[in-house]
Amino acid sequence: MLAYMIRRVAQSVLVLLVVGLVAFAMFSFVGDPVDNMLGQERTQADVERLRAELGLDQPFIVQYWKFLEQAVQGNFGLSYRQGRPVAEILAERLPATLELAFVSGVMAFAGGVGLGIFTAIRRRGIAANTIMTLSLIGVSLPTFLIGILLIYVFSVELGWLPSFGRGDVVHLGSWSTGFLTESGRLALILPAITLGLYQMTLIMRLVRTEMLEVLRMDYIRFARARGLRERAINFRHALKNTLVPVITITGLQLGSIIAFAIITETVFQWPGVGLLFINAVQFVDIPVMAAYLMMISVMFVGINLIVDMLYFAIDPRLRADRTGGGH
Question: Which of 200, 199, 209 is nearest to 112 (CA)?
Fold first, then answer.
């Protein structure tokens, strides 16, 4: 187990370095931040001086190495646009994104597993077939289009929910939350549904498929032959084995929720790190873009590492394979 964890951590660090290198290399194609920072009356001397101050006159690999040295210390430099430490800006925006991702993730997992079990057990019922038909909407429609449709129905036509913003928030030290205010909770509903709908339908269809496969196994037939109640068979035996492959997909989807919140935050003008990244791209704010991509990479790799550990702990076949391989 320890050797497996060490190997996975080493692989994760290598992935982070490669992702950071690729992302940093792509910034050279976004544009030159000096053009946005200096006015029309700038001279060539002003351009060269500012590029030297920002370190943009150095080779690419040198810039990347300095970025890594500072990032390890929690220093991502100053924002070209705001002139403030990037770490401070991310700390202000991160609670909004994590709050949105948490609500979306809980909705996606709980709704996906629950509906997946229901549609598997009642697969010939009208309700199950209706749910499966409607799930095609969440799989087929783009996220931004779902958000626009929800805004049109619930904000424009019905006027029940706000169409943008985070509402009122409460500051608990350095953390801000909208859970404790009515407007904050209302503002969270539409973005959370928009962000979590695709993941929920994907998890639901996966759980249904795995559940149907498990229910065809011989040990399920033996359990029925022994006279066990259907509820015990479905939830004690079938569901336990169904969730083993679902954990991997769910972990990846939770990482996707954080990474792809950028679209939802743009549609609803949600003040999170995704919207911050969009504004940084428009202004060619390289420190903010680099810090955002590294942060998302760390979250993605961290979630995948945790999922691998859980998968290893839950599935005894993996432990048996490792033990056999060691002998």
Answer: 200
Residue type, 267: V
Element (H, E) at 171: strand 170-172
Note the helical H segments in the chain. 2-26, 33-37, 44-54, 60-72, 86-121, 126-140, 143-150, 182-215, 218-225, 230-232, 239-259, 261-268, 273-283, 286-314, 316-326
**Residue range 273-291: mean pLDDT, rounded:** 83
Query: Where along the chain do its domains lie?
Result: 86-287
State the architecture of 86-287 in CATH terms: Orthogonal Bundle (1.10)
Q: What is the mean pLDDT of residues 198-206?
A: 86
Name the residue type at position 272.
Answer: G
Whether 254 has a pLDDT exceeding 50, the answer reads yes
Q: pTM for the whole thing?
A: 0.77
d(CA 34, CA 25): 17
For every residue of 192-224, which 3-state class applies, written as one string?
HHHHHHHHHHHHHHHHHHHHHHHHCCHHHHHHH
Label residue 241 left, alpha or beta by phi (over 0 means left) and psi (-120 to 50 means alpha).
alpha
Cα–Cα distance measured from residue 170 to residue 225, given in angstroms and rounded to the nearest whole number: 57
Residue type, 322: R
